Queue: 2 jobs
Job 1
Amino acid sequence: MNEIDVAVIGGGVAGLASALALAQLGASVCVIEKDARPGRGMSTHNSGVIHAGIYYPQGSLKARLCVEGRPRLYEFCERHGVPHRRCGKLLVASHENEIADLQSLFSRGIANGVTSLQMVDADFVRRREPHVHAVAAVWSPETGIVETEALIGELARLCRERDVALLVGTSVIAANASSHGIELVTPHEAFTAGTVVNAAGLYADDVSAMLGARIFRITPCRGEYAELSPSRRSWVNGLVYPLPHSDGSGLGVHLTPTTWGSVLIGPTARFQTSKDDYEGSRLPLEAFLEPTRALLPGISLMDLQPGGTGIRAKLHGPEERFADFLIERDAGNPDVIQVAGIESPGLTSCLAIGEMVAGLWKRG
């Protein structure tokens, strides 16, 4: 492999979806993934939620690609047998003074094109979720869950069917400008890519600098989870969310049933400097009790058990509320297409992101 049309750095959902869309256009493509198999980073360390598109500012890429990507992802899962469930979500107000904020989110979702949303009362919540406390809620019937590892596996399989070379356990250690694009150097080989897609997740800022492209900063934000004990899993039928954090760091500790039967509680949100510290200074289980009781008042500490962690790749720090996806042909190095800051709703948006990247490549 001396020359290739496109090299995608990063084998998460955004990278694999981009590689698949590019291969479907006839490009020769490789995916370079530093881990031993695709999707071991952010793509499988999250809640596995298929979002509707409620939270994001109107006109943002997050709003547009979420709304475009959601039906595509459902159709993909149905066609390829990826476990998923359109279980719906209740975004709840626990107190009367939260109703105005709830109505604002409802209006934002409608403006973003999520026309299936409904404002509902406490009786509606009680019928769907008898154990959940709420004075009012937004009901989102289009929200669901997906088994992320199965999704990654199917995207990787389809890439291989399209002759995409998946170079796992491989890192780019150097990049040099070439008359035909960018020469990429790995520990095993060197080859030239006409275009490089930077979908490197938490390391997208480092990769961008290596490629001689724009300078930006990824800020890691760790999310930790607990889980409901098996005896309390029946207390939750669908997704239940509080109002999101006012500082923009996350959507709040929420309840997420999984396709394999557990119920996740989380994630929390804490900015940190390390991009790979998943376990240091973990929160005690007691830290999840009050956020869980705000939604499920009958829960005790004995009903909780430890869960996993994930790290979001944010394009803003704790002092800012919002940063959009960065998906564009780089102004400094036009041989690079940036796919950075792909946190939530990146999973929901992945197929729409892939199509956008393929469109950028096709237009040159």
Job 2
Amino acid sequence: MTRLAMASLRSRGVSLLACFVSIFLGATIITGFSSLLDTASGSGVSDADSGTLVTMASVVGGWGLIIVLFAVSSTLGITVRQRASELALLRTIGATNSQVRALVRRETAVVAVVASALALVPGWLLGRWILSLVVSADMVDDAVEHRFTVPTMVVLVVAMLVVSLVAATLATRRATSGRANEALGGSVSLGNRMGRLRVVAGLVALLIGASLSTLTLVLPKTDDPFGVMMTAGPASIFWALGLALWSPWLLKGFVSVVGRPLAVLGVPVHLAVANARHRTIQLSTTLMPIIIMTGIGTGTIYLVAIQNSITTHADVDSKSIAALNYIVIGMVTVFAAIMVVNTLVAATNDRRREFASQRLIGSTTGDITASVATEGALLAVTGIVFGGLASLGTIIPFALVQTDEWLPDDGPWIFIGIAAVAAILTLGTSVVAARRAVRAPAIETVLAA
């Protein structure tokens, strides 16, 4: 099985590129913040500075692992769908479901180890840069020196390997759940059904988010803003994760509402709406990072803005809390934005044969590009709407506790800015990826697939 996995990797390196990018970028971010743990244990570091560094490393490292799990699961899901016929063929000639899953896991393990190892150097550089920001914000003493030890490197590679293997297991469960002859004939469709594990995980995340929002409102008010943020800040994260897990249902419901009015705008739009109705599981791989980016970004930035508005003097604690939150949201937003691009490119590339078939029956490249752009618009709007709702799990309770108002005085401009970035990113990537996918002659694409 190991020999087969290595041969498969050599022959399909390009198709696994999206998975490699996900692991590499995730490992880089986690490595950067995890190096702060080594820095915190260095000689001469005060207890206060050590506590600040440990908090940053724990918060971002923990959320980073969860988001990387989401990202790798999404990209692996696309990769597995691309090779559904190949995996079905292995099953028809005698391979068991366990052997097929083991094959994918071993391929993923190799990619994870290589990507994680290559991420150590850029992660080390990222850690040094983060420490310089922390020092500039007067969060730690400027005498603190950055450290990154070999044991921590090993632990990081192992952690990324475990996360990737979990993601591979989740991605292959659905691919091997149906009949092999149906998958071999290309008749298996993921449809709109979600697995029980995904449904339950989404419910748990939403319940945790609701609990944190409620705790923010009912806990005794203190003069320590960090105490309130400890419950309000993570609330939008759990709300966003829960809604992201339920993204196929959200997309289906949203398209059902807006689909009929949009369908009269022309054939490309009609095709986009029909495709969104029947491919919600596939399209949700891109919708998930949009919800996460919008929800966490909006919630955290408004949280800092509310706190800054009630701070009457620039004390060190307030500056430190604001700097920490901006660093966290910066890392999460950048990673989520990259994952939007990564999953969109991979998913669109997976549809080259579909586009080629449409061109052979009369569709123009302009029609296909317009249809994909409409799908991108539907994804962007859906992600922005539900990401915005997720952010309210942080904004409303924190604003009520700190200002006795339901919403902050900053207005909608922060949300509009984040929504604009999400929309431009999704639409731009959709159009560029679609144009690349229809570049080759249609007949060559169909025969080569």
